[in-house]
Amino acid sequence: MADHTPPTVDEPTTPTGPPAQTSDQAAPAQVTATGCPFSAPGRAQAGEYLTTATGTRVRDTDHSLKAGRRGPTLLQDHHLREKITHFDHERIPERVVHARGAAAHGVFTAYGTAGKLTTAGFLAKDVETPVFVRFSTVLGSRGSADTVRDTRGFAVKFYTDEGNFDLVGNNIPVFFIQDGIKFPDVIHAGKPHPDREIPQAQSAHDTFWDFVSLHTEAQHHTMWNMSDRGIPASYRTMEGFGVHTFRLTGPDGSTSLVKFHWKPAAGAHSQVWEEAQLTQGNDPDFHRRDLSDAIEAGAFPEWELGVQVMPDTEDEMFEGIDLLDPTKLVPEELCPVQPIGKMVLNANPTNYFAETEQVAFHPGHLVPGIDVTNDPLLQGRLFSYIDTQLTRLGGPNFDQLPINRPHTEVNDNLRDGYGQQAVHTGMAPYRPNSIDAGNPLPTPTDERPFIEVPTKVEGEKVRANPVTFEDHFSQTRLFYRSLSPVEQEHVASAYTFELGKCFETPIRERQLAHLAAIDADLAKTVATGLGMEVPAPTTTDVTDMAPSPALAQIKPGVTYPVKGRKVGVVADDDADLKAVEAAVAAIEKEGMTPFVLAGHGGHLGGAKGPVIDRTLLTTRSIEYDAVLVVSAIAPAPDARGAFDAKAGDPAGVPNNQSDPRLSTLLSEIYRHCKAIAFLPNAEVALAAAGVSTEAPGVVAAKDAEKGVDSLVELLGTHRVWERFTPKA
Fold it and tell me: Is 91 labelled a binding residue?
């Protein structure tokens, strides 16, 4: 019998590093691709004069080389060809999903409370880890709007001492599908129709609802998307979820199953539907602008990272919930979220392309102590995320880009390929070897290598799901019935709007049958709005689960910080300017951002008066969480009545009392349940807008400081929800 024992190789017991460069060898300097030290600040380029990409100085970059002043351009103009070629290739393929994003740098500080759960070093007490976080929509292209109804990506790259750990999640804890093989299908269904490439960044069309009504496993995620969660107020007020179940290994070798949660310090809040529609037209960059402005203003967004911890049992179930099913959540009342650290975003990117666009996340970027499970959606993502970068970022070396580069040693034996930045030395990029002193060596166990948790795997090769994946309606009902009455009305309106955009009657009927299985009243409300009868429910075998109050965003009695909120201060040249200044100071004292609004630009009451931040022509209600009306604003010269697109007079008050655009702003602020405070003599502005001074959340104040105090109290609940009157 042949001997298959591999030959032994004498190896040193400790790594010696790659062999030193010999006298007959040379290598490029260890600087950036543009010749700067890696640690140098600035624009990553050096020198006083314009050069080509290879460093040749250029005298003229305004004129191509021609055969005579009026002659044809010459092919030999290498500077022209280099400049145009680079320009032609400045754009890389955008992401198929999550194309539109915004990002920020920050730091994660661990509490140490996960010490018994995992050996992951970055979760040890007081360890600070740099992070880069990218938020995104899913369906839209890079040029789409921020505030569409959609799922949001919430991806965090931890640059730990043990390698990068990527927690690639969403703002919704469940997903549309249970198996990664369906991912192309659900995205194809949600994307614009291939014949006309419309509608952009929307789910309100036939192909989306055709898919989710045929794949009932999508009903839970769809219900979340139709709730207020589908239109976050900002990235700063958005929860994040790891979606999948992960396996942690503790110092004693014990394992547990966990789900990751990000809880925003500002609370989880959303826009109302009309507000979201106005935002898309007025500022399609609303969310990315809000994130960068907050960081620039020092109102750093914060989240607390927590975990739901469940026993690692053989069946991987918890309280009857299959933990490998990504369309299921674990109610916090059954398994509380335990805080393990805090993340603060404190710096904006320097360059959008180099950082936000080129960052590459991957669920398989793991560190010792954190491992994946057999969730079939997660298993598909483990392949897909690496594969997609090969096209987007030009080859296998995307981890060498500065934004992706680990902040620890890398010694991987990977060589060459598109975009290779390293200048490797040595002769033997393979294992084992005796030429390069055996380098790199396998990591001994006591040096903390990543070791997969040994789990038992057995069974027939099948294309099938476990029986426990078959219940698609019980948790959907749980989520809907856990919402507040206001949120439930918003859900019904969203379904009515979305299905009303579908042309195919069978699709609407099929989805109504699913809603009938989830909640009869919801189905009736939506059917009435569509002018249809309620069909028989898809199934009557739906388990009633206890409501989970944690799933609602509107929580009676709960208050939130006001830091980072935006408050408009309305005034004209005849207003009490000291009151305006006092209001600005009081707003800033609370950590909020004031905006002085007037009918013209410049200063109020002359060159020495308060600076005007927004004119009525350049602003809209969507910019503000609340307003303080110091005085009315008489119609400005550019307010042209019926010719002004924003003119309106809902109360019938003559326009000479208040600028019609101020009336529009105040009426929208009121309709969107935002707080309004007003000082004496400002009532005329509210009357012109049709806003009653006796309405909930509309408060009179004797002076600016008391007005700001009233707004702070009202902003603690985010909105004045009493203005909505949900059905009994």
Answer: no
Cα separation of 325 and 31, whole Å? 47
Task: Tell me whether residue 719 is annotated as binding.
Answer: no
Buried b / exposed e over 528-559, threshold 16 CB at 10 Å, is eebeeebbebbeeebeebebbeebbbbeeeee
Which pLDDT score is estimated for 710?
A: 97
- 49 carries a ligand binding annotation: no
| C-alpha span between 280 and 444 (Å, rounded) | 55
CA angle 51, 57, 59 (to 5 degrees): 100
Gap between the Cα atoms of 586 and 223, Å rounded: 41
8 A C-beta contact, residue 234 and residue 287: yes
The rounded radius of gyration (Å) of the Cα atoms in the chain is 30
Arithmetic mean of pLDDT, 18-43: 62
pLDDT at 5 over 60: no
Q: Find out whether 95 is annotated in a ligand binding site.
A: yes
Angle formed at CA 87 by CA 83 and CA 91, multiple of 5 degrees: 155
Q: What does residue 222 show for φ and ψ, rounded to 5 degrees?
A: -60, -40
pLDDT average, residue stretch 294-305: 96
> What is the C-alpha to C-alpha distance for residues 176 and 168, in angstroms, rounded to an integer?
16
The residues, ordered by sequence, that sit 6+ positions from 325 with a Cβ below 8 Å of its Cβ are 178, 375, 466, 468, 469
pLDDT grade, residue 549 (50/70/90)?
A: very high
Choose the catalytic residue: 98, 269, 490, 718: 98
Res 4: pLDDT: 39
Q: In terms of Cα–Cα distance, which of 580, 589, 587 is closest to 611?
A: 580
Residue 184: count other Cβ atoms within 10 Å of its Cβ. 12
> Which entry of 170, 171, 225, 404 is annotated as an active-site residue?
170
Higher pLDDT, 468 or 17: 468
Chain centroid offset of residue 722 CA: 29
* Two tokens, residue 683: 């009532």
Phi then psi dihedrals of residue 695, to 5 deg = -70, 155
Number of Cα atoms under 13 Å in the Cβ half of residue 630: 27
Q: Residue holding tokens 């309620």?
A: 534
Structural domains in the chain? 101-404 (2.40.180.10), 471-551 (1.20.1370.20), 566-724 (3.40.50.880)
Helix, strand or coil, per DSSP, at residue 585: helix
Q: Are 177 and 377 in contact (CB under 8 A)?
A: yes
Question: Has 57 been labeled as part of a binding site?
Answer: no
Quote the mean pLDDT of the chain.
91
**pLDDT at position 14, please?**
44
Using H for helix, E for strand and C for coil, what is the string for 332-366? CCCCCCEEEEEEEEEECCCCHHHHHHCCCCCCCCC
φ, ψ for residue 166, nearest 5 deg: -105, 120
Q: Of the given ranges (87-96, 110-119, 153-162, 304-313), which has the lowest mean pLDDT?
A: 87-96
Output the pLDDT for position 85. 84
Helices 485-500 and 505-518 pack at an angle, to 10 degrees, of: 160
Structure tokens at 162: 């043990």
Q: How far apart are CA 480 and CA 559, in angstroms?
A: 23
Can you tell me the distance from the alpha carbon of 291 to that of 186, in angstroms, rounded to the nearest whole number? 29
Provide mean pLDDT across the span 275-300: 96
Residues 6+ apart with CB under 8 A from 455: 247, 374
pLDDT above 70 covers a percentage of the chain that reads 91
Backbone angles phi, psi at 139, to 5 degrees: -85, -35
Query: What is the model's pTM?
Result: 0.91
Cβ neighbour number for residue 157 with a 10 Å cutoff? 24
| Annotated binding residue 59 | no
Question: pLDDT per residue over 211-237, tens digit each?
Answer: 999 999 999 999 999 999 999 999 999
CA dihedral sign of residues 471, 474, 477, 478: negative
Can 170 be counted among the known catalytic residues? yes
Which residues does 648 contact at the CB level (< 8 Å), separation at least 6?
660, 663, 664, 667
Q: Is the pLDDT of residue 19 over 60?
A: no
